[in-house]
């Protein structure tokens, strides 16, 4: 081989995109050019280089990853995804404190690459993002984690539960007690509904808040000063939603179901 595998795979955006595209199966040149928005002149030299180094093989008029290429892509793909996540929203990620996230979720931050940062203005600092409200209104199942009391969230959760939406919620004990104190009889009715499951987390939660609704994901972290600045990350990608559901299930392991 004339170049190292890392250099071969990572130094060229065209090669990287090509390998990620081919991980799902063989493709001909026409499909490659259309999917990656490249010309023959732009992509054929990259294909030749990958073929010469045993990463790609050609069968008739189609190109596919070799066995070795498949191994390389599967190992490097999480790095590609993580890099894309950090490069898309660098100011957000490098200002967040994610130290409380379990390592398996840090390693999967690449799943949140197709996300948008929501920075509320001073006049709507304490309001939930409109994108969240819009998705909650049409969702049939909602999971949420919250380590702080927010009357807007409680209000919307209660309204959704009354409409029959299935809800699984994790609160810290302090948040749970605040809801009971502030909402009284309404909280008892809310917590007693058949379509609502409430879990009380034993310790500190790894995020400030997280919501997964049908096809929607929201998460917020403290910043590195330990302050909640109300910046949120939202996404409608399947990978982000699954990341959120998995984090919920993880937090359930250290939570007690309220009966």
Q: Can you offer a commentary on this structure?
A:
With 259 residues, the protein is of the alpha+beta class. It folds into 2 domains: 5-81, Winged helix-like DNA-binding domain superfamily/Winged helix DNA-binding domain (Arc Repressor Mutant, subunit A, Orthogonal Bundle); 90-257, Endonuclease Chain A (Endonuclease, Chain A). The chain has helices at residues 5-10, 13-22, 29-36, 40-52, 67-88, 90-93, 103-106, 130-137, 151-162, 173-191, 238-252, and strands spanning 27-28, 56-59, 62-65, 116-118, 141-146, 166-172, 196-201, 209-213, 216-220, 232-235, 255-257. The strands form 2 sheets. It has an 8-stranded mixed β-sheet with strand order 4-10-9-8-5-6-7-11, with helices on both faces. The model has no long low-confidence stretch (mean pLDDT 90).
CATH homologous superfamily (4th level) name of the largest domain: Endonuclease Chain A
Number of H- or I-type helical stretches: 11
Structural class of the helix and strand makeup? alpha+beta
How much of the sequence is in beta strands?
A: 15-25%
According to DSSP, the number of beta strands is: 11
Estimate the mean pLDDT confidence. Answer: 90
Strand order of the largest sheet: 4-10-9-8-5-6-7-11
Largest sheet at a glance? 8 strands, mixed
Distance between the termini: 63 Å
Shape: elongated
Helix and strand succession? Answer: HHEHHEEHHHEHEHEHEEEEHE
CATH C-level class of the largest domain: Alpha Beta
Organism: Methanohalophilus mahii (strain ATCC 35705 / DSM 5219 / SLP)
Domain Methanogenesis regulatory protein FilR1 middle: 126-252
Protein name: Methanogenesis regulatory protein FilR1 middle domain-containing protein
InterPro entries: FilR1_middle_dom (IPR013561), Tscrpt_reg_HTH_AF0396-typ3 (IPR016490), WH_DNA-bd_sf (IPR036390)
